[in-house]
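Weekly modeling sync, notes
Attendees: S.R. (lead), two postdocs, one rotation student

Agenda item 3: backlog of single-chain predictions. S.R. asked that every request posted to the team notebook include the full sequence so nobody has to chase files. The rotation student volunteered to paste the first one in as an example of the format we agreed on. Action items at the bottom.

Example entry:
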Amino acid sequence: MTSIKNVSITKFKQGQLQEKEDVLAVEEPLEISLQYFENGEKKRQSISITMRTPDFDKELALGFLYTEGIMTSLEQLEKTTSFIDNQITIHLKEGASIDLEKLKRNFYTTSSCGVCGKSSIDAIRTIVSGTKAIIKTKISPALLLTLKDKINQHQSNFSQTGGIHASALFDMEGNLISLYEDVGRHNALDKLIGHHFVDDKLDFEDMILLLSGRASFELIQKAIMAKIPVVCAIGAPSSLAVELADEFGITLIGFLKNDSFNVYTGKI
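Predicted structure, as returned to the notebook:
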């Protein structure tokens, strides 16, 4: 599967129409299903259909289930299967403890974002720990100013298409740990978190999350679930994102540029 596609277009420039080649980010649906055991009986439930950029579907699915609070440990996972394109099933081990009532009550079958399609208003806010994030290392403003250029250097699909989001994880010294791209900003973050879930290395203390676009409520919610203490966005945060970040002790930075940024919550 490929994440980009070449197409023929007609470009108008300097008063003339020209036949050109262009590159698009691929967007296709992915159906995420969960197979689990209830009273000793094997059951399968479709959880979500999300519009995503193909590739890293395993990471996307596991990151989604983790940030939604359904899976909490890699030990719950038996295997993943994908017999046909655009479908993936996460198989839980028999005896794996999950909140089945929450699974049946809160989930949905069509969604291209982290909220649209939730079955109830109550389901919008994933239950997260009330413990506030604690930053053990002082954040350097000078370091933050270097992150935008670093993410640009590694956004291969964005540089070709101009139409894709990225989520990147840095340590407090500015070293890039991981980066994932997707047409959906929520998917890019789920892929990143899912990558570390697969590696069984969900330790994000003293890490910085960089978002290539705006910081929305759903993205801050996912950062809280992953216990990421610092979130930087190249774009603007929403009002609910700021309120949620403040409530859970997240340092939230917006409008990150090469020479300036805004601190909305927390201190640096």
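Discussion: group reviewed the output briefly. The radius of gyration is 19 Å.
Action items: rotation student to repeat for the remaining queue; S.R. to check formatting next week.
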